[in-house]
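=== RUN LOG ===
request id: a7f3
mode: sequence -> structure
chains: 1
length: 279
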Amino acid sequence: MPSRVPLRRAEARRWARRLHAVYGLVILGIVTLFVAGEAPAERLVDFEVHYASTPLIREMILLYLTAHIVASIMATVLCARWAASVIRPRWLRRGLRLLIIGFGLNLGVGLPKVAAMIGRWTGHNWDAINAQIFQLCAFACTLFTFLGFTLPMVGGFLERLRSQIRAFRRLGPLWRVLRDAIPGMSASLPVAWWDVELKCQRRVAEIQDGRLALRPFRSQALAVAAAAQAEAMKLAADLAGARVEAIVLADALARKAAGDELPLLDDTSAPCPVSTGRL
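=== RESULT ===
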């Protein structure tokens, strides 16, 4: 199964090179046909319909509309496949769903123009299709595409910020207890109020420094007994580790206040189970 990943990447690169080559030729063809044709009047809204029967310009219009419609279909299918396989992050999945709508609405931008041109060729007046459907789909397509690209970035940033604020607040009680017991634990350098990530990282570092300062007062026997009790209670590994650490820290703080220092052991500085990613 792992060997399929490099194969898929190689296939994706081959498809990307082919698409670059094809659309490079399309761009070259559009420029060549426009230069060779005659389009003296500037038509900002109905360019395609106005020049539907003009030699060379007509072919140029069909070429770029075809390329646009094909690209819209491919983008819609790719986003749909990607969204079907994405579970997390949830903001990416939501953004992909909006992109599916946005790229799908691109068909409403190109197809009405083709229909209006066909109407001109067959002696019918289908300009209203282009005027009404095109404007509506163009606005909706732009809106959904914009939201689809920006939502994962903005939503992911806000979600990370909320998680960091939550972790910072949950670390507060432990940090304050250790700060009161070990006054030199806190750094004096100020941190900007908006830099929540740095504030959270510094709080974790200061908690770790406080734990190291309490090493002479930590009881290994109490840690073993607390671990056995947590195992008897059949607690999950993270919860058990947090419980043991809390019991040992509370006892160490009490011993420090009483001046009851213990012999220093090499294994009394077990890793702290506190993690900003889990709070």
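=== NOTES ===
Confidence is low (pLDDT under 50) at residues 266-279.
Residues 109 and 134 are 5 Å apart (CA to CA).
=== END ===
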